[in-house]
Specification:
Blueprint lengths: L5 E4 L6 H8 L6 E4 L6 H9 L3 E3 L3 H4 L12 H6 L5 E3 L10 H7 L2 E3 L6 H17 L1 H10 L17 E5 L3 H10 L5 E5 L5 H6 L3 E2 L2 H7 L2 E4 L13 H6 L5 E4 L8 H10 L4 E4 L19 E3 L8 H19 L13 H12 L15
Parallel strand pairs: 1-2, 1-3, 3-4, 4-5, 6-7, 6-9, 7-8, 9-10, 10-11, 11-12
Helix pairs in contact: 1-13, 6-8
GO biological process, one term: amino acid biosynthetic process
GO molecular function: NAD binding; oxidoreductase activity, acting on the CH-OH group of donors, NAD or NADP as acceptor
Protein name: Hydroxyacid dehydrogenase
Amino acid sequence: MSTRPRLVYERWTDPVAGDILDVGDVCDIEVVKLDLSAADEKTWAALEAAHGYQVATRTDVAGYDGGAQWLAGSALIGRCQRLLAVCSAGAGYDVIDVDACTRAGIAVCNNSGPGAEAVAEHALGFMLDLAKRISAADRALRAGTLGDRLGLRGSQLLGKTLGVIGLGAIGSRLVELCAPFGMEVLVFDPYLDEVSAEARGVQLVTLGELVERSDFVQVTCPLTDETEGLIGRGQFRAMKPTAFFITTARGRVHDEAALLDALVSGTIAGAGIDVFHEEPPRQDNPLLGLENVVATPHTAGVTAEAARDIAVATATQWQTIFGGGMPPRLLNPDVWPRYCERFTNTFGFRPSAITVYQKGSR
């Protein structure tokens, strides 16, 4: 290459990403770490010179004044004219304005798949915890308020109905994990066809039917314009009073105030929440004070194994991008012709629609 690719990142999920990129088996990439505590001018200078940006997460930028400007919104896209590709760390990509990127000829990628096991196991953990009242019993035992232990009577997963909203990598793995419990599985996913649903042993239904019939409503879809506010007061009112709402998706897929009302009023039995509208959630968030809530601070995908797998996938995808291949997790394929033109003008050769193999990829 006549021009050396420049990749800017805020942090890796595991140092192995840097190790892979340092080897340079596919191409020589200049890797620059973004310091969000530095003066804005320095941060902008790094981004404006970048060809690729491994986008910071909302949690990464939460502690900085004006931190949201470092997400890949329309303002950043408009300012960073050299950008050819932006990638999110995990499956979620709500930190990227996909439409703005497509208009600018920028490829958008995520890292769906590598963290699916961790998140699916976490979702199953929520189900077991809520049904068996494990956290509630633990709190009562530690506080000395146990009383009659029969008051902590729970329920079993065996034979219950599981409703999955979004049957991607996470939702699909959750269905597999729940197979030993003999659960009936309902799925709402506008992008899934009946043939595929039947092959996976699930029943494709409307959102209304799913919330009415399910004992566990699991949200595993990404946050998009289509899914923002998908679960609101109407959906919570339609759920069984014995049902549990569980989300490992993104906070704004559900209406947080409506969920609070449903939990306080007894409209639903409980909730397992890994994601909030504001992250990290404030300590006085009323959801955190409810006995029928089990909450975690967006840690469903935070395992040692997932961190490494995501880092490997991240690094090898960047090798593919700058090596001239089509990224394996391209979210806006319509950008490809314009992207190829911009890539060729920058590096002097045209990308191929064939994914480049990288040593150590999987």
